[in-house]
Predict the structure.
Amino acid sequence: FHVDKGETDIRMVFNGTTSGINDATHASWFPLPTIESHLRSVETGTWFSDEDLGEMFLNFLLDLRLRGYTGVDITMYFPELIKTYQPKLWVAWTRLLMGFRPSPYLATQQLLKANNYLMGDRRDEANPFHWTRIVLNLPGDPNYDPTRDFVYKLHPSGAIANDKHTYIDDLRLTGRTLKELWRSCQMVASRLNHLGLQHAVRKLRELMQDAGAWAGSVVHTSDGVYLLVSLKRWEKTKYILDELATELEESGSLDHQNLLSRRGFLIYVARTY
C-alpha cells in the first residue's frame, strides 16, 4: 500500500506485519545521535550544510534469503501480461523496504560502515576532515573553555575540526570556514555517489551559520552558539500543554496513558534547553 508523502508524492510500504515476515525476523535496538553529539563540533562562526541520502532504504540490498518472502501479487493490475502457463504475476522486493521492521537498523548499520571512507584518513593534512587530537574540555581544568563542548576534535589551526553527523538519512556537515565546508561537502557527496548511495542534490540548501533543524533542534552560530527547537516542534509542544491544561481543568485529573504517550516528546524538547 502507499502512504502520502507531501502533496505530490507517495511512499510505497510493504505490509510486513500481515505477511508475517516481521514476526519471523529480529530488529535490533540501536541508538541515534542527539543534538549533544552535534554540539561537539560547533563553536561561534561554525558553518553548516544539510545533506540528504535519497531513498534511504532502497540504497541497500535485501538479503537473498529474505527476498522470497517479500512477494507482491500484481496480477489484477496487469492482466494483459498473464499467460496460460503463468496464471499469476508476482514481483519481489530486492532492496530494504518500508514496513520491514529491521530496515532502519540495517540501513543505518550499512551507512555507518561507509563512514570511514566518506570522511577519509583524518591524519591526511589535505583532508578537509583532518584533525590532530581529541580535547577533553572539562570544568576544573586550567584550560577549560566554557564556549566549547566538553569533548571535541581539534584542528591544527586551533579551531574545532570539520565534522559530519548522521541522523538516519540526514547528514549534517560542519566547517571551520565556508570554503572548508564546501570542500567537505564535495568530498562526502562524491564518495556517496561512488558507493552507489544516492546523494539527493535536489534537497540541498544554502550553506549557512543559521541552519535549519537537525534531529529536531536548531543551532545558530553567527554571533554565539544558540540552541533552539524547530518551530514545528515548538507549536506541537504548545498544543500538547494546552490540551493537558484543558483536560485538567475540565475533569480535574489527567489520563495516565495519555501522559505516558506525551512524555517522550516533551522530554525530547526539554533536553534542548
The chain is about 30% helix and 15% strand. The helical segments are 16-19, 35-39, 103-113, 115-119, 178-194, 231-251, 256-272.
